[in-house]
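Problem: given the chain below (748 residues), write out its structure.
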Amino acid sequence: MSTEECIKMTPEEEARLIDAEFQDLLNGYLSSNHRKKVEMIERAFSFAREAHKGIRRRSGEPYILHPIAVAKIANQEIGLGSTSICAALLHDVVEDTEYTVEDIEQHFGKKIAQLVAGLTKISGGIFGDKASAQAENFRKLLLTMSEDIRVVLLKMADRLHNMRTLGSMAPNKQFKIAGETLYIYAPLAHRLGLFAIKTELEDLSFKYEHPGAYARITDQIRESESRRASVYNDFSQPIKDKLNEMGLKYEAKARLKSVYSIWRKMETKRIPFEEVYDLYAMRIIFDCPDQSKEKAICWQIYAAITDLYRLHPERTRDWISNPKANGYQALHLTVMGPDGNWIEVQIRSRRMDEIAELGFAAHWKYKIGEGEEESELSAWLSTIKDILEDPEPNAIDFLDTLKLNLFSSEIVVFTPKGELMTLPNNATVLDVAFELHSEIGMHCIAGKVNHRLVPLSHRLQSGDQVEVLTSQSQSPKPEWVNFLATAKARTRLRALMRKEMHPVIERGKQIYEKFLSDNNITETNETFTKMLGNMKFENRDDLFAALGNNETVIPEYMPKLLRQTSNRSLFSKILRPLKGNKASQQEQAPLKKEPINMKETYILHCDEDGGNSNFKLCDCCKPIPGDDVMGWVNNDGDVELHSLTCPRASVLKASFGKRILNTAWASEKGSFPANIRIEGIDRMGILQEIIQMISMHLSINIRRLDIEAEAEVFHGDLAVMVNDTKVVTDLCNKLKAIRGVQRAARVS
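Solution.
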């Protein structure tokens, strides 16, 4: 609902709207298979409505509509019951009003109060203003989740509704919220098996970060709908006929790739929309009241399909025998369709489908005592608890470590005794050692994979049998962190290394503090950042460790450099008005910065040659006009420019949201570097044609051209100076028109 519509509504119309929304929530709850506790839900609604009376959301709508929407998602999209509905209705009461958790407990009992308290602890998003607060807030979320997973499921519902209503926020807030959603919430939804919510969170984040690309791909999907439907019908009809002959009760449908996943494929493979052939998969969901017969039926359907179509031998995935750690079960196979393209078919029972869509919440419905599915969740939560006991001191490292376990593809390996172990993709022998025990990890020297001796850095494949070899003389090494794929192992190793390095770091800290004292320098963020940058160290501990180990010394020029930095900071306001002589103007030049209004769109200006700009280009992504970009205000007050696809931008959005700027390119454009990768069939004179076309016909400045040919195939890397992305697109199209050039695309 728009702000204008809300403003136009009378109090009576608003009351009718609120009642209608609550009735919709109740109707959904009454049609579910939960026990009907309507009276308690009605009491929670009345309590929340009164508590939020007169309060409005940023969009202008009455605030109570938000808790109702969160409760509706919790019930109808995640499958939670009355306790969770009440907690969702009350989830903002303690934070936003005078009521306390004790008041909630008095009116609604201990369980609902605990859920509300858990949600209040992690209110305002996972990330606060300071790095340490972010890590602490995320720890609270996960610790609370290990006590009652409904807290995080409700938090997911809260975040999903906030994303659905993100349009009313300022652009820089949209970047921040979309960024932290992609960085943490979507991976967490994936890890909890909330597939539908994970997909929607990704699509909504993409919509606000790349509105142009989102609209373009959405239009292309719509335009290709009739062609896709025709191909799907030709492919699916013979399968349906077979399933009908088998007497199965089933549902068959085409599952379209999400807009975000299509875009990711286009970006990573550098291909246009037309070349994304696996736009959809066929999903077969069959009814089977007897759980013990599900596996046999899946393989019967598999056999029926492979009788009709040619199977891709390397793309069969059996997640029935070995479910994913988030509980996902299905049988996937890929076959050649009638149009000559590969099509994936997903086979699942109704029970498997509910678990795939609703995640662990659906497990409760099918729980039979302490089943296998429950133990999967318990195992994951115990891993998370393990990490929380000894978190990274650096908040970003902590979040990155957790992401290793949140959003990783999985492999299954076996111990020598045949016990199964689920690990992230790219896990090594060393990961297995730490997974078994910290002591084994500390003393690991090598491994045996399928009875063959391998180093501890050896990457494992699904189905490997792994034996860990240890020696008491072995001790952990800092470079081991590069061999590890599991969060648990990284946390344990870093904790061991910190313990070992603590005396050295303390000695280095004393050397540093004595240096400050001897030279009468006051430490500030600016002076310390300057020192780290000048001495080429990434963080405080690295510098102190090097000093403590006598690997480096503080240079003699450092006191003068730090005093200049400190003086500039102290006297910038005094120096700014001085314009009398050249010396004062020289002092003034680097300090002259326009005040930045974080709420307004920041216009990016630069000269024709790309110099004298009001922003800094970062080496990590090097964006050019036409790219979707964001600004980030660094410690010096400069605006750093990042492409929204840059991994560094993801971290900044999720971690320093208040420093994010919405940006727009000015109409005048400078000249920017762009890199293009060319591939094709080698022939006499092709290089001359490429150079002639670029420099003579397009008048583009070539900075570098490296071409290497092998066995009649060539690869080339081209560096050019361009004004914007349109020039790059035009250049790539003209390169592809040259006989022999198969592919030309911009690369980072």
